[in-house]
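Subject: Sanity check before I submit

Could someone independently write out the structure tokens for this chain? I want to compare against mine line by line before I put it in a report. The sequence has 140 residues.
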Amino acid sequence: MRYEYDDGGRKDAGFVGDTGDCVTRSIAIATGIPYSNVYASLNHLAKRERPRAGRARSSARTGVHRQTYHQYMLDIGWQWTSTMGIGTGCTVHLREEELPGGNLVVRISKHVCAVIDGVIHDTHDPQRDGTRCVYGFYHE
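---
Independent answer below. Compare away.
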């Protein structure tokens, strides 16, 4: 799969430094919504979270819990397609021929990335030589 460096508009929005914002960045890239708008919306949704013991509230800068970004994606009209079920093992990998075309926000192990028409848009290449398992993806 081809890979292109893309910070999702983070630098242009005035944010500096490296951080764990893969959810915010991927959503901004795939949807075309400005980074700062996604950032603010995710942080707003995070205020409704009820943190459990030992678990911090979501932050658009350092990490967003799955339930929070799932709600955001549904709110903006995107749909979730699961590619993995209990006991099925890995059936879809981060490979162009195994994913549909179009704009996708793809959930992989401990990361989320944007894939646009078979090209990964991220700040690093997460493929692991085509062995990275895809848990599912959001699409319009």
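---
OP: Matches mine. For the report I'm noting this point. The chain has one domain: 2-139.
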